[in-house]
Write a structure and sequence with these properties.
It is a single chain. The protein is mostly helical and 60 residues long. Helix content is 48%, strand content 0%. The protein has one helix spanning 19-47. 0% of the residues are buried. InterPro entries: MCU_reg. Keywords: Calcium, Calcium transport, Ion transport, Membrane, Mitochondrion, Mitochondrion inner membrane, Transit peptide, Transmembrane, Transmembrane helix, Transport.
């Protein structure tokens, strides 16, 4: 909504300072934790022979 019910234009919204830095400070740690969880879960699956990736040799 950019105008009031009487037709007046509302002021510009406040700009968040350091938006890119804050976004980076949130995204990077969660990506890192996600990769650690995925890596450990893949190792667990391989250890219990639930999923073992096969080496596909495409030397045909």
């Amino acid at each position: 909504v950019v105008s009031t019910s009487s037709g007046g234009i509302l002021p510009k919204p406040d700009k968040t300072p350091f938006g890119l830095i804050r976004m980076t400070a949130v995204v990077v740690p969660f990506l890192y934790v996600g990769t650690l969880i995925s890596k450990n879960f893949a190792a667990l699956l391989e250890e219990h022979d639930i999923f073992v990736p096969e080496d596909d040799d495409d030397d045909d």
